[in-house]
Amino acid sequence: MSQTADKQPVLAADGTPLKQALDAALFRNRMRAFMLVLPLLLFLFVTFIIPIGIFLSFGIHDPVFSKFMPKTSAVLSDWDTTSEPTEDMYAALVADMVVARKDKTIGRAATRVNRELSGTRSLFTSSARKAAKLEAPFKESLVAVKKQWADPEVWKAMKVASRSWTLGYYANALDYKQVADGSFEPQPENRQIHVPLLVKTLWISLQVTLYCLILGYPIAYLMSNLPARTSNLLMILVLLPFWTSILVRTTAWIAMLQSQGVLNDLFVLFGVTDDDNRYSMIYNKLGTLIAMTHILLPFMVLPLYSVMRGIPPSYVRAAKSMGATNWTAFSRIYAPQTIPGIGAGAILVFIVAIGYYITPALVGGQDGQMISNVIAFHMKSSLNWSLAAALGGVLLVVVMTLYWIYDRVVGIDNMKLG
Amino acid sequence: MSLPIYAGWGERLWYYTFRVICGLIFLFLITPIIIVIPLSFNVEPYFSFTSGMLSLDPDAFSLRWYKDIFTNGMANPDATTGWWADSWNNAQWLRSMRNSFFIGICATIISTSIGTLAAVGLSRSEMPYKNQIMALLISPMIVPLVITAAGAFKAFSMLGLAYTYTGLILAHAVLGTPFVIITVTATLVGFDQSLVRAAQSMGATPFRTFFKVQMPLILPGVISGALFAFITSFDEVVVVIQLAAAEQRTIPRQMFSGIREQISPTILAVATILVMISIALLATLEMIRRRSERLRGLSPS
Amino acid sequence: MKFNQISLGVAAALVMGATNAADTITVVSWGGAYTVSQVEAYHKPWMAKTGNSIISEDYNGGLSEVKAQVDAGNVKWDLVDVELSDAVRGCDEGLLETLDASVLPAGADGSAAADDFIDGALQDCAVASIVWSTIYAYDNTVIDGQPSTIGDFFDLEKYPGKRGLRKSPKANLEMALAADGVAAEEIYDVLSTPEGIDRAFAKLDTIKGETIFWEAGAQPPQLLADGEVVMTTAYNGRIFNAMAAEGKPFEVVWDAQVFDMDLWVIPKGAPNKEAAMDFLAFSTSTEQLAAQASWISYGPARKSSAPLVGHYDGKPELEMAPHMPTAPENFGTAIANDFEFWADNQDELNERFNAWLAS
Lengths: 418, 301, 359
Hints:
CATH superfamily of the largest domain in chain B: MetI-like
CATH class of the largest domain in chain C: Alpha Beta
CATH architecture of the largest domain in chain B: Orthogonal Bundle
Largest sheet of chain C: 10 strands, mixed
Largest interface: A-B, 89 and 96 residues
Shape of chain C: globular
Oligomer: heterotrimer
Shape of chain B: globular
CATH topology of the largest domain in chain C: D-Maltodextrin-Binding Protein, domain 2
CATH topology of the largest domain in chain B: MetI-like fold
Number of helices of chain B: 13
Radius of gyration of chain B: 24 Å
Number of strands of chain C: 12
Structural class of chain C: alpha/beta
Number of domains of chain B: 2
Strand content of chain B: under 5%
């Protein structure tokens, strides 16, 4: 606070300069407001932000190999990946295997290397069983147990695995792989699965968003132009699904769409198809699309409706009175005013769709799976939390970018619920 | 949007076509939810209407799947004494119903209380970094649940909270807070801050001001936020899959494995009950909304 | 019948008025008819004998939950029924308690436990209870003719209609190669080469468009019954059960079926290890294994149980023996699951399989 000497500051009642006193009061008010938010912020940090941080850290930090094979990791860090593995390296490996076998950690180290070079798991576990009996020179004795130990590829895989801090999982999530000297190269074609998966996820989400828009726009328009009593009644038809459990709605779609389901029965009844050629509308991508569109439709209708409600009918009337056709009045006058609603609804639907898990898991079959399902697969089945975290990191970046756009376009405080 | 009398032939046609299209869309929205209700009374273990049902033959309908909700998992469903205690303690659907309500209510209390407090703070004009903080507070609604669940599992494992009620309640409370923030700040948008100043100038403590002036006006927002928080927890399955042991199974978790493994009409019966619960919540919400509009002197819309 | 997570435990405690001394253990298995057979043959007699109680839970195999619980330091499960490859892998990774096979009772014929169990049934961390097979089955009211070879499963022209496969490369790749003409004893050698894997996937490709994939063991009989598929691979006991208990018109084809074991394991740090071990020893005794085989057509892991295997529960006319994977007329065509191959390659093959599914 700078005061010029020639100008006497205005003083508050207690003698402090008024500006200072006001600032102090403002600061107190700010603190007071902040203190109200603080409990939730702390709660959010402890139960949400830090946990996600911990999870994401798995994507770049995997100390399994260096933890359970410390001596080998130490000698590997000096290895240039091209020269012949030395006797020292074999001696360190055998020493580590003896300890790891005793501690029952050999399987975990082996699993780590197996991710880099498939088929090496049993090399470790079976050699470790005999490691305690091996004698120097270890190179010969180990190669005598399994001849693969002479293969430099095994050592290169160990070298990659021995890096605790690694970008290898993120590389994998983008269909690249880290090789022994630390550089990255594309995965072989038949193992390039994650980028196509991401593209597919985005594509399904885009389709769902589009369908929601196509279905949501007319009914939002209808409701916003009906008398309040009728539109409130119709609103219930939108809100009831919104308030009904996702699992209930998914179950309902299974009942509707499965081959012995209601819809197929109707088709057979009306001769659209015969009993032997019932349509498969569920447990595939179509099922995912239908069920997700149904589940996310209210997210589109609600913002559209609230924007359309606010559009004064006089504009369209004015246009028509000046000779515009119905279509021109709609497309030139009305529709542009609904763009904020379209933006809000579309981004929201897209954000929710992209991270969707339950519906694809239940009705997606094999081609309706999305990125969340694969993340869950790596957490629950392949037990590769690091890859799950890397894929999760990629997904989170996409979602957060969209969220940022949403904030820019719509503004977080304009989010409305029902 | 009634049809003006001067409307031409094409306009009339479009008017009715448009209504038919809208009708079909509403049908799409509501049919799947309505259809589970009659199907849950099917006497056969199928997911489709039998010819008996279509001809309204009373024998084609039964309450057997509802009975199953109460008996499945019971030690002795045929016992004459202690039937209710047995059902209450052992029937798996009832147990998961109890879990769902317990976890949902506890999570709602946490998220509503600290969420309301934060919303009040956020609505103050002096709030620093308002937008950024708001964005942060809403983020649990945006972050994919799989990621939230994975994070909660890893972090709660370190604290010994994985596979505990506490862990589940905390995780669900986080997921509920954005809804409370959104609904409460929405009611505060129209709030006249001069009321607070008036109360304070007349010597009311901030505490008293909050409960006597602000609270009654934002109460509808708080209640609807609480309902949202509750339904969020009540519906949630991804976090439960990751964080719950068998003893903490909730209704959606039970349905999830049921749908995945052996889809039985009992699930339809449960679904029907859940639809009824949603209708009750929705009706409550609508009543609150109307009351709030009356209180604020807005014309009913 | 749905037997998800029955809390027989609490119930038993209530019924018998047992108070505090009794232990409650959590036993985890694969659900459906298989869990029912275990509840009838193991759980109920053990509870009656010891006064302890059991909480029975279902899962879909794999080590993920066990690993999650061990990592979380909050183990909820006391005893888990796992496949052989998972038992070996879990043991290597320190997820399982080492078991002392010497506490297992001798066979009813007096032979020591170590001799009485079939080969591979006693592992460092696991004791086998049953042998089972992944077979394929069809609905004979829908299929014209009599499929009898694995080739027929892959023959969409001869037997048109949807197929069901487990959503996992396990057993599928073996069966695909067998259908492609690879002899049973060479299958894993062929699969160990990149060309062999390509060949297996190429064979699966021929039916992929017509295939529905299942995950839980209870699904295949359901898929057949609902008409979602006309033929599906399945665990043999599940199909048998649908035939025996519900009278479904299913037929099992014994050709190139993949033969495996289910074993009991105790997760590291299980809360009631002592009681779990007692249950384990009880359930793998000669009589209990034989009793279990009267509920579902899985073969007992003890040789001494075989002669005691009788007929299906409540149906004296239905002998169990011909339906067992170990029956001589069935066993001849079996491919023995190579757990080491799967321990080595399942990560890569799972990945490839998932990519193949999505493509």
